Amino acid sequence: MAFGMMKQLCSGVAGCALLLVGPAVAEEFTVSLPAGAQPIDGRVLLILTPDGKTEPRYQVDQNIDAPQIFGVDAQGLSAGQNVRIGREVLGFPAEDMSMVPAGNYHVQAVLHKYDTFNLANGKTVQLPAARGAGQNWRNEPGNLFSTPRQISFDPARTGDIAITLDQVNPAIAEPQDTEFVRHFKIRSESLSEFWGTDVFIRGHVLVPRGFDDHPEARYPLMIFHGHFPADFGGFRTTPPDPDLVCEYSERFDDPCYNRVEQQEAYDQYQQWIADDFPRFLVVEIDHSNPYYDDSYAVNSANLGPYGDAITHEFVPALEKEFRGIGEGWARFLYGGSTGGWEALAAQIFYPDEYNGAFAACPDPIDFRQMMVTNIYEEPNAYWTYGPFGRTPKPGKRNYLGHVDYTAEQENRFELVLGDKSRSGAQWDIWEAVYSPMGEDGYPQRIWDKRTGVIDKEVAAHWRENYDLRHIMERDWATLGPKLQGKIHLYVGDMDNFYLNNAVYLTEDFLKKADPPFMGEVAYGDRAEHCWNGDPDLPNSITRLRYNTMYVPRIMKRIEASAPAGADLTSWRY
């Protein structure tokens, strides 16, 4: 160790908080609480960037040109103690502080606070509670951070650079009801029991025109699955702001994409109130939790019974509150990416409770292509091996196939943000949802986070419980009749995250399924993430139209499948 004499405050391969008790032998950082601060547990993140235009914490991502970040755990950190971050603490993009070039940087530290949960099974874990920001460590209320400042750094020098966590994120205000957007929450009995504390599921509900004037009407329900919603998005009752300052979208190469978003939101409102538009409810669900910004809407050994809680607790309560029809034929699911996987999974796991899933660019639905890795047959998630060498596996590409970062880099980025699947990022939530719980109360690793070596026993658990193509094929004799006409899959053939690969394999099964699946699988030519089924418009537009684009197909499905005596009129005013 190059740190001199120190006292370790935690354990773990990803780096630990260290109480400074001796001199440094290379330039390093010490992060401390202000005087009088209460003891706290969490993950300390240190960020260095040459760009001072915005706070360093808001620049962090997994791209290779992102700021430098290091992370260590802090257990019982108190005022007067220091967390030392120096050599041998894992970093990204540079793995070690010795690899950071000498220069002038803007520096900031953040402490992502952990709470202690005493689970119903007797395990005790420390995790970041969902506190209103969708597990965004940059903004979660109660997280500490330092005032950014500029420094000169040289890894060859000796000395300390002291950083004080002198700021705290404020609480986030609850969204307010409007004529069309209402808010709803329930305490889930099953989740509260699992976590050993009160757990709430929230919904942001778009109600139809005339909702308050038609108390006799009962409505179909559309569940728009996806990442954490702070409020109902993409709906605006006024035209775009004439004084709007344009913001350039690098993703869509649009000089004023924020105006496009406002116009689309207003257009949706105009369509929503049109005389000939069907009346129904749309809900965006906030099921953020200690591992991620949402739960993946299924039962999980590590997250608890979110599938049952949403389908059997939340949805019936919401329908009772907002006069939903309350029967499976009148419930539909849609979403993209994470939401696409959730829509398909909920339809498969609760086939009688929903009448159709429109899954766009879904997260891998066949783990023989977990992006680009067959987790059942390949030995490693980061490397493809030959007799005399190895090739890194890609993590993200553009439509030309140019790679932004590798699978190893993305996973190392997550490990810097948090060990024990606590990064709040993509691979870790898959692990938290799909894996069995380990003896320590945290998810079992699907692979070694540093080496990429795959654990085949964990992979087998993933296959039998969450590989959606495998589950459909295994159980089609009983599932097939219940899923006929309900499955719709859409993905671009140049999806940035290779999600089309798993759809190809799933389509191979669906095309030969008996009884026939009677649904739809479609691909967008050269389309990136997240193509959702419209061949005539770009992603930049269709991603803003989920709540209207599937309506014609949903209405046909209702007409074809509603049981005798079903209410097909009260909501068509």
From TrEMBL:
Say if the entry is tagged with keyword NAD. Answer: no
GO MF terms held by the record: hydrolase activity
User: Where does the source fall among the domains of life?
Assistant: Bacteria
Q: One Pfam match, by short name?
A: Esterase
Please report the name of this protein according to its UniProt entry: Alpha/beta hydrolase-fold protein
Span of the signal peptide: 1-26
Check the record and name the SUPFAM superfamilies matching this protein.
Answer: alpha/beta-Hydrolases
Kindly state which keywords UniProt assigns to this record, in alphabetical order.
Hydrolase, Signal
Which residues are in coiled coils?
Answer: none
The record's section on InterPro entries has: AB_hydrolase_fold, Esterase-like, Mycobacterial_A85_antigen
